[in-house]
Amino acid sequence: MDGEEKMSCEAMVTDSNQAVEFKLIREKNDLENDSLAFKPVMSHQIFGSQETIFGYNNLKVKLYFTAACLNPYLQVTYSEKVDPQKQNSVEADNIQEILMQKLEIPLNDNLDLFMSSLDKETQFVPPGELKESFVFDVEDPDDPSSGVQQRTYLVYHADILSPGLVEYHKKLQTFILWFIDAASFIDTDDEKWKFFLMFEKYKRNGVNLYAIVGYATIYEYFAYPRNIRPRLSQMLILPPFQRQGLGAALLMSIYNHYKIMPNVKDITVEDPSEDLQLVRDFLDCKNCLKLTTYQPTELWEKGFTNDMVQEAATKLKINKKQARRIYEILKLKTVDKRNEKQYQDYRIEVKKRLNLPYQNEQKKLKTLEAFLKPQEIAEMKATFVLSAEQRLSNLDKSYRELEGLYERVLNRLTLQ
């Protein structure tokens, strides 16, 4: 390949995050409504670590779904495509093939067929059992002058035996690859998986219609002797519905479902993203503020107690680790930062907790020293043991980052 051919090929590399766009289509006019389009947050789980698509100029990949049934439509357009005969047999990426392989669903590229599928939206019935419904006041970001509108949202609980759930979930789960890092599809043959699906319910011409908002998957682990420990695996609110409090509403619906079940030990979350952890912290703080043991006088007079752990677990199904985190957030809420002694006492208490893993690691290394030669001990310390200055610097950095997250939770609590 000569220099000119190489430059031509390099020019035909497209940022896949910019090329791909989604829409949730409710009616035929939505196809031309650019304000409904949204982009992926990431695409490395589809198009590789570089997040690029090769072989096209002015590439656009439109991946649209009907808002209720999630029937897909794929349209790929471009102004130019690499010619293998002119570019040393180099071929363009087969976008449809890549998408079908990664998303594991068939993709229709026939617009007429897609448009006709919109007529079936009126027949859609959400899978599972209706758990909650609520009304939110929402301002249209595209037309603020229209004022606040009331919108109705529903949460359904389903499992793999719920009619239509498995097939529906196959289409719904494709979104996590674009919006959740390290996402993976789940085994829907396992009956321990439970699903919470959120829909917007709206009317058109007097007919009730639905639009998918988001969903969460829960795995019900066994907890000795006859209990279960539900673990939130993944939760996603689709971009058109974000920043409206719907993530907290969905998580609260999950809490409400499980907290009344006597065989539920506690509710955990699997490797939560920062955003999910913030939603979780906000809800848990809001709920713990109603508990006796989390009142301001208790926080300062007694510190973190077993009574707190027990009350949070019994009434809210919060595990011990999260109960401690909520204690720290709510205690920070009461700190007067102008009171240097009070603020310092708080920082020291949190830093002691943050330093526990380091102390435990030091104990393990100390135990190992009895079985090692002096040279091996020296090499081990050089590799694993930080200097006092490094350790204190790392600890201070961890604390400052944590306090920043806590402040974000408290700011949201203040707005309620």
Characterization of the model:
The chain is an alpha+beta fold and 416 residues long. The chain has three domains: 3-120, Histone acetyl transferase 1 (HAT1), N-terminal domain (Histone Acetyltransferase, domain 1); 125-271, 3-Layer(aba) Sandwich (Aminopeptidase); 340-415, no CATH class. 42% of the residues lie in helices and 23% in strands. The protein has a six-stranded mixed sheet. The radius of gyration is 26 Å and the shape is globular. It starts with a helix and ends with a helix. The model has no long low-confidence stretch (mean pLDDT 92). Keywords: Acyltransferase, Coiled coil, Nucleus, Transferase.
What labels would you give this structure?
single chain; 416 residues; alpha+beta; Histone Acetyltransferase, domain 1; Aminopeptidase; 3 domains; six-stranded mixed sheet; three-stranded mixed sheet; 15 helices; 42% helix; globular
Q: Biggest sheet, open or closed, and with what strands and sense?
A: 6 strands, mixed
User: Segments where pLDDT lies below 50 for 5+ residues?
Assistant: none
What is the radius of gyration?
Answer: 26 Å
Order of helices and strands: HEHEHEEEEEHHEEHHEEEHEHHHHHHH
CATH fold label of the largest domain: Aminopeptidase
* Whole-number total of structural domains: 3
What is the fourth-level CATH superfamily of the largest domain?
Answer: Gcn5-related N-acetyltransferase (GNAT)
- Total E-strand runs: 13
Structural class: alpha+beta
What is the strand arrangement across the widest sheet? Answer: 8-9-10-11-12-13
Which overall shape is indicated by the principal axes computed on the Cα atoms? globular
Give the N-to-C terminal Cα separation.
62 Å
Strand content: 15-25%
Compute the average pLDDT.
92
Counting DSSP H or I runs of 4 or more residues, the number of helices is 15
Second rung of CATH, namely the architecture of the largest domain: 3-Layer(aba) Sandwich
EC number: 2.3.1.48
Coiled coil: 385-412
GO molecular function, one term: histone binding
Subcellular location: Nucleus
